[in-house]
Amino acid sequence: MVVLALETVTPHGSVGVWRDGTATARVGDREIPHAARLPGAWLALLADAGVSMADVDRLAVVSGPGSFTGVRIGMASAQGLALTRGWAVAAVPTLDAMAECWRAAHVAGGGRPPRTVIACLDGLRGEVFTREFHFDGQALTPRTEPQVGAPDALRWTPGGAVSLVGSGATRYGAAWAGVSDDIGEVPEPIAAGAARLAARADWPMVAPHALRPMYVRRPDVELARERGRTVVR
């Protein structure tokens, strides 16, 4: 099976291909807008993987949280491609894909004892997007829903070792150094994790029109609109 994955929620973005158990992925150039890189980025990666668009069995898109503009570009790109090909699409939350990248790296590296894993994406504005998972030595199980908040407000299930992974972890790691023995970046492009998750037989697939973004935080334009409203008495 061949899975093509697209991630546009981070400044660099990434594309990934999963083929018969192996995921390859590539990050983009943050100086080039996401919309300008597509579809060239995914066509180039497919060619490097030795497959073509006709060989793709599943399409995955990272659905957020992350950049609001990036999420919308990814959704629109996935919908357009899926509609022309008659494909269903796998929507993969950003934090799940990040945690999967951590899991795959540590399982491949010989494994680790069970622990709490928290995917942490820098949300800017002094906030971080997080989701907590339990790692049993092989698989990850979500413990919480994605959330956003100030770094010093982050809490997780007490007890045991804790790994923090992602841009939010490295940026605000000093705040958690006393409670975590493992703070680091995502070990591979996020699209690789999304491709592996979408390749699972139990991962839900939806029609293109049913794709929904996972913003977690309300868009800036909505907040600005509320702040600008005149109070009528």
Quickly describe the structure:
The protein is built from seven helices and eleven strands. By secondary structure, the protein is of the alpha/beta class. The chain has two domains: 2-93 and 191-224, ATPase, nucleotide binding domain (Nucleotidyltransferase, domain 5, 2-Layer Sandwich), CATH 3.30.420; 95-184, Nucleotidyltransferase, domain 5, CATH 3.30.420.
Specify the number of helices: 7
Helix and strand succession? EEEHHEHEHEEEEEHEHH
As for the number of domains, it is 2
The CATH architecture category of the largest domain equals 2-Layer Sandwich
Structural class: alpha/beta
Describe the structure.
It is a single chain. The protein is α/β, with parallel strands linked by helices. The protein has two domains: 2-93 and 191-224, ATPase, nucleotide binding domain (Nucleotidyltransferase, domain 5), CATH 3.30.420; 95-184, Nucleotidyltransferase, domain 5 (2-Layer Sandwich). The protein has seven helices and eleven strands. The chain has helices at 34-37, 40-48, 68-85, 94-108, 167-172, 190-199, 220-228; strands at residues 2-7, 14-19, 22-27, 58-62, 89-92, 115-124, 127-135, 140-142, 147-149, 162-165, 182-184. Strands 6, 7, 8, 9, 10 and 11 form a six-stranded mixed beta sheet that branches. Helix 4 (94-108) packs across helix 6 (190-199). The radius of gyration is 18 Å and the shape is globular. It starts with a strand and ends in a 5-residue tail after the last helix.
